[in-house]
Each structure stands twice: as structure tokens, then as C-alpha cells.
């Protein structure tokens, strides 16, 4: 496949303005190194803040950027600055990327002896790999069918414990930043358990998951989980456990025993706030594939009575609440209902894995899981049916966006665009869909349609970069389109973008008018002051003097650096106005006025 042309607007569409700005700085400073391309995958290393470097990887496809990842701790949505830097490096200097073979191609000519020698050397150099490789060798491989043998669960327990204790030798301040990586290693163990499930060995999968739940929960006693990364992982194990349980044939005795074991483990996790969705594993053990609609209706009736009852403490006297069901009561008397919706999702996952397509579709229809129905049609390459079903049954913009992404992942770009364009006609927030669809349309040369998508995003999520993109795509039609775009900006609560647009268009007076508006953020005033200083230094001098005097008069040392920044603007404005002597006189008077404030004097000395 010919690699697509990556444009700056595509990169900006996936990143926040701040991430793009910092990524551009990283690229300009040469922070990206060891760049390569394997097939459609870009990779490189970027200088890091909390590590010598971060590993960055981007997967390209016909429609542009398919996926991107980085080993940094960025969790604020969109591409981090390191991903932006790598993409800019590829966009501007694609020939600097070394072409490398894919791993399969690299190892293709090696025989078993060669591979054994390489692995042996790696284990000798990195002994910690032994437990990981030992655990991996017990996992079923799709490429090789072999007779099932009983899994040694202690092998996996040792591997899990090695992960949990991998931070033991670090200082607490250092270990804190590695908990996310620890959680990712535990996810790899979870994935290995699911491979057993894929191979039809639900018993081994369940045993690994139970040990994973047990040891990961206990790991909270050794790990500083202030960010909740370990707890989040533990709390998300419920679906995997439920799928394993639903894939097994269990007697009532076995179910009861499993329920007791799960409840004990979940109680421990709950003591540390890590219960998450683990309760659906208990529901899977209790009800299996049975019809639980009656239980759900009963719980809803119980819940409605609590709202009507002024004395919720009477719950334990309700004869309709079977104590054997062991429904946990919250402190204020409400029953914690089982996650029936999540259990339905687990059932669909099992049916999907086992190839029971007709039952899968039937359950989707029964439970009105239209999104999963449409996605399954996409997976089965029943494209025409998927398009028809999506247009008829999907009612939210978010659902159409997910199906569009699914089609794009299957390289069905035209179909992805069709569903995306349908989503733009639905009610609801269209910012996310517009920001996703715009670059895809543009990559296909569909400028008019890309403009429509970006306009939909701009209405709800205006930004200076989106404004620039719309202006570029509109071409000769921009003159008639701009008034509508400006009207949307003026209605927006956040006036920063409006100010930035006026500055971009060199509308200095309009920008100043925005800065002088009611309840405008100080950041907007600062942006406008910096933008118009060469064109209206008188206004900048006036506003700088006003804010500097206010901040200095409050006698709060934390405000002095901000006041000094305003004084720097005042100094620059006076220089442009050829009033340097007046600036020197004012600075001297200010130093004398506040001579009893050493923190402020320190700031003034730097001017």
C-alpha cells in the first residue's frame, strides 16, 4: 500500500493546541531520533521529561493516521507532544526514516537453532525475561495446534508476582511514575488468559484470571496507586472473568463454590475501592445463560420502593428480598443491582468468540444492541447490510462515529465516510465526528465534504486551527462563509478563539474590543496585548500599567511574577512609543514605592 500524504491539519485534528505547539518545539529541537518505518508503521524515540526517551509508534493507512501510541504518561486525550513530533518529522523529512523489515520478515530465514540461541542469549542478559517467556510458552498459539495440557497456574502466579514487585527497588517518587507500565504488564497477562479462552480452554483462562485478580488486588499494599492505575486495571477484570465463566459448563455446586470465591476476592478489592465492574463475574456465576429479566425487574421494583419509603433501614425486613441472593446494600439502604447490561456485553463477546453468529444477532436484537449488530456486519464484510442497518437503527452521533472507525479499520474508507456523513445529520454533539471525518475526507480529496465536517466541529468546538483549516478548504468561497463562522465565535462563551482569529486577520481594534469585554479571562487580555503591541502600543501601555499596579498593590508575593510580566510589556510599549526615559522614571518610582517588599524588588531588578 502506498503511504498516505500526512498534512499538518491531520496532525492538528488529533492533538490539542498545546500538544501540537509543544510537539512542534520538540521536532524543531531535534528531540526525535532512531526513526524507522516498517510497512505502514512509523516508530521513533523522543527525548523525555521523566525518562531518557519515550518510544513512539504510529500506524498509517489509506485514510491517514489509523492509530498512535507513546510510552509517556499523557492521559489528556488526543496525541501527546511526542507523537506530534514524530508525525511532523515524517511529514517534513520522510526520507530520514530508515526502512526496516517487519519482525516476521526479520526472523523468517532463521531456523529453530538460531532462534533458540538468540532467546537463550537474551535470557542470560536479562534474567527477568525467564518468567515472562515461561508464562508465554504455556499460552495457546494460533499458528500451532497442540494437545491441551493442564496449565501450571503457579507459573503464571510467579510471573504476576514478579510484575507486582518489579518496583520494589525504586524510590517512592520514582516508582510512582511506573505504575502505569506495571498495569500494562498485568494487562498482558490478562490478554494471555484470553488466548486460552480463544483456544477453547475456558478453565485455564478462568484460573489465570482469578489468580490475576487475587495477586493484583494484594499488590495495592506494595504500590503507590495514587493515580488509580492499578485499581482501574483490577476493577476492569469483571468482563473477562464473566466471559470465561459463561464459556464453561458448571454444575450448581461448582457455581456456588465459584460465587463464594469471587465474593471473597471482590470484598478484598472493594475495601480498597477497586471493585469496578467485578460484580458481573458474580452474576455470570449465579445466572449463567439463564434469563435474568425477572431478577432485573424485581430489583427495579425494590429500588422504586426505596425512593418511596422514608425509612430505608427497613430493607432487611422485606420478605421479598432473599438473603441468599446476597445483594450488597449501600450505606444509605439502596441495593447494588447487578450489572445486567455489562453481562449482556460479556455474553455477546462469548458468542462472537465462538462463532455463534445467529445467536449473536438474535441477542443483539432482543437487547437492542444496534451498535454491536452493525459492527458485526462490518466484521463479516457484509458492507451493504451494515450501511443499511446503521442508517436505519443508529440514533446517536457517537454510534455512527464508532461504526465509521470500524469500517475504516477494515480499509473500507468510502463506506466509513458514508456512515460518518449520515451521522452529521443526526441530533447531538458532532464535534468529535467532525474532527475525525474532516481529515479522512480531505485525504480522499473530498474538499467540499471535508469542509462540511470541519464546520460541524467548529460550531461546537471552535479553535484557531479549525478556523485556519476551514478558511483553507473554503478557498474562494471563504468570503461568503466567514460571516457565519464569526457569528458562531461571537456566541461562544470562550472568547480566546475569537480574539486569536481577530489577531490572525489583523483586526486589531476588534481584538482589543474582545479583550475589554465583561468577564473576559486574563489570558485573553495577555494574548491580545502581545498581538497588538506593534500596532497599538498606547493601548498595551495603558492595560499593562493597569494590571501591573493592581497586582503589586495586593501585596501577594505569588502575584509579583505576573506583575513583572505586565511591566515587561509596558517597557516594550514605551520603547515602541520612544518613551524610554518615562519608563526609567516609572521603574525608579516603583522600586522606591515598594522598597519594603523584597520579593517584588527581586522581580523589578530583572526589568
Structure write-up:
With 607 residues, this protein is mostly helical. The chain folds into five domains: 8-106, no CATH class; 128-292; 297-318 and 328-337, no CATH class; 350-473, Tetratricopeptide repeat domain (Serine Threonine Protein Phosphatase 5, Tetratricopeptide repeat, Alpha Horseshoe); 533-604. It contains 32 helices and five strands. It has helices spanning 8-14, 17-28, 81-92, 103-107, 112-125, 129-137, 153-164, 172-175, 179-198, 202-218, 229-235, 238-246, 252-271, 279-287, 293-308, 340-353, 357-366, 370-379, 383-393, 397-409, 413-423, 431-443, 447-460, 464-474, 478-491, 496-504, 508-515, 522-532, 537-553, 560-576, 580-593, 598-604; strands at residues 32-38, 41-47, 53-61, 64-70, 98-99. The protein has a five-stranded mixed beta sheet with strand order 4-3-2-1-5. Helix 27 (508-515) packs antiparallel against helix 28. The two termini are 58 Å apart. The model is unreliable at 143-147 and 299-338 (pLDDT under 50).
Low-confidence stretches: 143-147, 299-338
Number of separate domains: 5
Q: How many DSSP-defined strands?
A: 5
What is the helix fraction of residues, given as a range?
55-70%
* Overall morphology: globular
Strand order of the largest sheet: 4-3-2-1-5
Radius of gyration: 30 Å
Distance between the termini: 58 Å
Number of helices: 32
Structural class: mainly alpha
How large is the share of residues in beta strands?
5-15%
Mean of pLDDT: 86
Largest sheet: 5 strands, mixed
